[in-house]
Specification:
The protein has one domain: Mitochondrial carrier domain (Mitochondrial carrier fold). The chain contains 5 helices and 2 strands; from the N terminus they run H-E-E-H-H-H-H. The longest helix has about 35 residues.
Length: about 150
């Protein structure tokens, strides 16, 4: 039950960051993305539905990477607390705050930040990119089907 509380503490800022960064990048893409040929605009985008899927994938991948990097210290503590239960006395933590303190005091700030982050980002970036692209394409299809009726 304790680990469920930790998951909530991690997921709330992660999801918030994910959507905030995605929406910001999507807005940036709306402002600055347009097709050009010989310096002439071929198409001006008026709605986020018009953004190419590749841009949506890229925005999602970057958003997932930023959110994962921002909340990674919480994920490290959650994993250590889970390992405590599985491996007996390998990690001796009394609480989440105690785990943070022990990790920082014994391993430094790098213990919270960099151990295992790169493999995690290699997993998160494409996954979140695909999730946002599928979400946006589905939303566009549903919007278009509602408009035609």
């Amino acid at each position: 039950m304790f680990i469920q509380g930790i998951r909530t503490i991690i997921n709330t800022p992660y999801i918030g960051l994910n959507f905030a960064v995605y929406e910001s990048l999507e807005g940036y893409g709306m402002t600055f993305y347009h097709a050009q040929a010989c310096g002439h605009k071929l198409r001006v985008l008026t709605h986020e539905r018009d953004l190419p899927v590749v841009v949506k994938l890229s925005c999602g991948a970057m958003a997932g990477s930023v959110a994962q990097t921002g909340t990674y210290p919480l994920d490290v503590v959650r994993c250590r607390l889970q390992m405590k239960g599985a491996s007996g006395e390998l990690f001796k933590y009394n609480s989440t705050w105690h785990a943070f303190n022990i990790i920082v005091n014994t391993e430094g700030i790098r213990g919270l930040r960099f151990k295992g982050m790169w493999p995690n980002l290699l997993k998160v970036a494409p996954t979140v990119g695909i999730q946002f692209a599928v979400y946006e394409v589905t939303k566009s299809l549903l919007y278009d089907s509602c408009e035609s009726h």
